[in-house]
Amino acid sequence: MSTTSRRGRVPMQVRWSDVDLFAHVNNAAYLRFLDDARFALFPSMGVDPAGRPTDSMLVVVKHEIDYLAPLAFRPEPVVVEVWVPRIGRSSVDFAYEIVDLDTEPTTPDRTVYLRARSRMVQLDRRTLAPRAFTDSERAVFERFPGEGPELHGW
């Protein structure tokens, strides 16, 4: 993988329904943010351009999430940054940071609300067995290379 880093940036609006009784975005709402951002950048994961299922599908097999700062309901959107630190034969890792809209990865002292990593495995829809990525599928992921996120250990 290239040492150059490139992150996709997807704005997300914090909805009132995302906020829990503690007045901050609920952990389950963050998963929706990650899923929505990933699908916005990689819309062909398991569907064709018309939205019909393809012969293969990508399924989540693992999430690791560090909640770093509380995010309250607000009118300003946040940005989910997404990049790909690892591409295997039939699996791919996505890395994420949720930050304020007006910050870039190089902005000093920016607030990172969440840092996460997801592993997905591509399966054959008929057999549900892992299926290797084609060169063209791999090329889509290679558009957003970068190092893995620094997550806190247990």
Shape: globular
Helical residue percent band: 10-25%
Biggest sheet statistics: 5 strands, antiparallel
State the secondary-structure class.
alpha+beta
Intertermini distance: 28 Å
Strand order of the largest sheet: 1-3-4-5-2
Task: List how many beta strands DSSP finds.
Answer: 5
Mean of residue pLDDT? 91
State the low-pLDDT regions, or none.
none
Q: State the order of secondary-structure elements, H for helix, E for strand.
A: EHEEEEH
Radius of gyration: 16 Å
Count of DSSP-assigned helices: 2
Residue fraction in strands: 25-35%
Quaternary state, please? single chain
Question: Your description of this structure?
Answer:
- This protein is an alpha+beta fold.
- 14% of the residues lie in helices and 32% in strands.
- The chain has helices at residues 27-41, 135-141, and strands at 8-12, 56-67, 78-87, 91-100, 112-124.
- Strands 1-3-4-5-2 form a 5-stranded antiparallel β-sheet, covered by helices on one side.
- A hairpin with a 3-residue loop joins strand 3 (78-87) and strand 4.
- The two termini are 28 Å apart.
- 23% of the residues are buried.
